């Protein structure tokens, strides 16, 4: 059983409500999108083929209870379902960060999803797999990466249109060096978005924006 792996490392989780916790990050190679702001473009094509045992050993070595599967797009891995089930059986808390374009129906409901909804600034507004909204759970997270005010307004409309306020965790994350954090904070306060969380990329603040493997 082969996986296309870009890197496995142990660091501080930088995003989602798990930000700040130590976490093993498994970054798979390959992505079906090419977002304008992608900060892991190297993961789209830098790949090594690892078998299941090598991958599990590389995760187990850190003895850390929290594991995130990311990419690239991790749901493109043929055997991702098996891997998540094995990790859960071993007692890991498993997060999957997905770009929102792939059907999550076959993945264990014990997995916590951090799912992108791609805004216009990404260049991929129309890829969202709408039926995922019927599978998503209250402890999953929907993430909107915002390039500017028009993305912010688009995100609010999307959430209202699908009646998602208060039903799932909502993350608003500014594109690094593009949308001013204070502007986003001001808009959220002004609009009284009590059900959305402003998310910073903590790993970039700790290690710097260009450092890989952290
Ligand atoms: S989905 Fe993620 S990994 Fe893929 S291009 Fe967009 S930002 Fe990069």
UniProtKB/TrEMBL annotation:
Sequence positions that bind S-adenosyl-L-methionine: 37-39, 72
GO biological process: tRNA queuosine(34) biosynthetic process
InterPro entries on file: 7-CO-7-deazaguanine_synth-like, Aldolase_TIM, rSAM, rSAM_sf
Subunit relationships: Homodimer.
CDD domains (alphabetical): Radical_SAM (cd01335)
Catalytic activity, EC: 4.3.99.3
Residues binding Mg(2+), per UniProt: 40
GO molecular function, one term: magnesium ion binding
Listed Pfam families: Radical_SAM (PF04055)
Assigned keywords, A-Z: 4Fe-4S, Iron, Iron-sulfur, Lyase, Magnesium, Metal-binding, Queuosine biosynthesis, S-adenosyl-L-methionine
Cofactor(s) recorded in Swiss-Prot or TrEMBL: S-adenosyl-L-methionine; [4Fe-4S] cluster; Mg(2+)
Organism of provenance: Candidatus Auribacter fodinae
Record note on cofactor: Binds 1 S-adenosyl-L-methionine per subunit. Binds 1 [4Fe-4S] cluster. The cluster is coordinated with 3 cysteines and an exchangeable S-adenosyl-L-methionine.
Name of the molecule in the record: 7-carboxy-7-deazaguanine synthase
Main enzyme class: lyase
Gene from which the chain derives: queE
């Amino acid at each position: 059983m082969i996986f296309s792996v870009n890197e496995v490392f142990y660091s501080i989780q930088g995003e989602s409500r798990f930000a700040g916790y130590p976490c093993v990050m498994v970054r798979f190679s390959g992505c079906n999108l090419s977002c304008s702001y992608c900060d892991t473009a190297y993961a789209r094509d830098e790949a090594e083929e690892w078998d299941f045992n090598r991958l599990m050993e590389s995760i187990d070595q850190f003895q850390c209870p929290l594991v995130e599967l990311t990419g690239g797009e991790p749901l493109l891995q043929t055997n991702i379902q098996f891997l998540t089930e094995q990790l859960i059986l071993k007692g890991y808390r498993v997060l999957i960060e997905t770009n929102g374009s792939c059907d999550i129906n076959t993945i264990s409901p014990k997995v916590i999803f951090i799912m992108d909804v791609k805004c216009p600034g990404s260049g991929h507004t129309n890829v969202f797999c709408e039926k995922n909204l019927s599978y998503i759970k209250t402890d999953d997270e929907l993430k909107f990466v915002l390039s500017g005010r028009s993305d912010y307004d688009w995100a609010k409309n999307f959430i209202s249109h699908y009646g998602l306020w208060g039903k799932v965790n909502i993350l608003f994350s500014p594109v690094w060096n593009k949308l001013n954090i204070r502007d986003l904070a001001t808009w959220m306060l002004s609009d009284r978005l009590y059900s959305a969380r402003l998310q910073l990329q903590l790993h970039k603040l700790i290690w710097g924006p260009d450092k890989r493997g952290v």
